[in-house]
């Protein structure tokens, strides 16, 4: 508190792209609300929030490659392997695991569906 009161805002860290994206999603912030929050913070001299462009980049990084997505008038589908690969890459990035350090044999153990909600469309 003392550092903030004395104008020493260097202790305040800027959110990462992923943290800023999580903030907007968790708080349900629209683009305009996030920009207003960022502008108000900047006016106070607190450069904590990234530009909305960086949030868009973080959001795009969560999407599977375009060539694995098929969209038509009647359906949309994504190759399962592409989703699994993306999930593994995001997990490894989150925990800062260097996959190039050595040859690694990693195993993804996951569960598919059957969470009790898969038949809700029958009601």
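^ structure tokens above, recovered residues below v
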């Amino acid at each position: 508190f003392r550092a903030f009161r004395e104008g020493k805002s260097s202790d305040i860290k800027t959110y990462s792209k992923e943290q800023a994206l999580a903030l907007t999603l968790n708080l349900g912030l629209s683009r305009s609300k996030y920009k207003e929050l960022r502008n108000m913070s900047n006016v106070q001299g607190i450069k904590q929030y990234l530009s909305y462009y960086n949030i868009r980049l973080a959001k795009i990084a969560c999407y599977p490659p375009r060539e694995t997505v098929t969209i038509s008038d009647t359906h949309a589908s994504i190759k399962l392997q592409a989703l699994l690969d993306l999930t593994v890459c995001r997990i490894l990035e989150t925990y800062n695991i260097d996959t190039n350090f050595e040859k690694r044999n990693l195993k993804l153990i996951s569960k598919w569906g059957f969470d009790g909600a898969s038949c809700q469309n029958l009601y």
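The first helix runs from residue 2 to 5.
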